[in-house]
Specification:
This protein is an alpha/beta fold and 281 residues long. The chain is built from eight helices and 14 strands.
Length: 281
């Protein structure tokens, strides 16, 4: 039977207006209180799945690879690599991870693959015994980004992944590496080839929402981020995922919610999607 564990990484503060797109501040500030710089606090959370003696990590968060100037610019709140500390609390090292599944290669989801910043030292790739899974189209986007999202990718990380000989490019919904209980869903609204891991057996279904639904406030269908490449496309994809979650009584895992890591989904009498059975962590 699979075991699921929320793994906290480094936290981050980003502009609330960017995180909530076309939602007025008078509304989104009731969901998340901004600081004096109009920033809201966000988690960068990973999901550890342990099954059949395999340790499978879904994403690595933002990590601690930024130099002090960029750490301040992007609101990274801790100098240490918190994800590694969180794994240690669970009795694991990054060397114990067999697979790292990356929904996409934006730095706040993949930066934790890199070692902590040290002055005068080049970053190294962590998780030396893992295979790194990323979708074909997001790998292509990361290597050849659009000017609109070029700053979201880390060229040095791309180079290290390519050199590792452990990069696995995913093109289809299923992959024999992970077994019959794993499959992938792909969406395009946030970034090309955003890859959502779906775990499903006779006991449970878990959906890794990533930036399609960063946290509880974004469950409401009209809410999108300023970072999304195609908000209308994202909204349609979100609705489809939430309908699937209801149909399968699935748990949805959130990467950026500062307090809550999972919930199930229901709909009210008006058809609005509502998080229920919310899990903190």
């Amino acid at each position: 039977m699979a075991k699921f564990t929320s793994i906290i990484g480094n936290s981050q503060k980003l502009d609330g207006g960017a995180m909530f797109g076309n939602v007025p501040k008078t509304i989104w500030s009731q969901w998340m209180m901004p600081d004096e710089k109009n920033r809201v606090t966000l988690a960068c959370r990973a999901l550890l799945i342990q099954q059949d003696n395999k340790n499978i990590l879904l994403e690595t968060g933002i990590g601690a690879f930024f130099n002090p100037v960029l750490r301040e610019r992007y609101g990274v709140m801790e100098e240490d690599h918190i994800l590694l500390q969180s794994l240690q609390k669970k009795g694991l090292s990054h060397t114990d991870i067999d697979f790292v599944i990356l929904s996409h290669l934006h730095f706040d989801h993949a930066g934790g693959l890199l070692s902590k910043w040290e002055d005068g030292k080049a970053a190294t790739l962590l998780f030396p015994n893992a295979r790194y899974l990323v979708s074909q189209s997001n790998w292509e986007r990361a290597c050849h980004p659009h000017p609109r999202d070029r700053a979201s990718f880390v060229p040095e990380l791309n180079q290290l992944l390519a050199q590792s000989q452990r990069l696995v490019i995913i093109e289809n919904e299923t992959n024999d590496l992970l077994g019959q209980h794993f499959r992938f869903m792909f969406t395009e609204g946030h970034t090309p080839g955003l890859m959502h891991t779906v775990f499903q057996d006779n006991n449970q279904t878990v959906i890794f929402a990533s930036d399609l639904i960063p946290g509880l406030p974004w469950v409401h269908v009209p809410v999108s981020m300023g970072y999304d490449r195609s908000p209308e496309c994202l909204i349609d994809e979100k609705k489809k995922m939430l309908e699937f979650a209801i149909k399968e009584n699935a748990q949805v895992f959130y990467t950026h919610d500062p307090q809550h890591c999972m919930s199930r989904i229901t709909q009210d009498e008006k058809g609005k999607f509502i998080p229920v059975d919310v899990i903190t962590g």
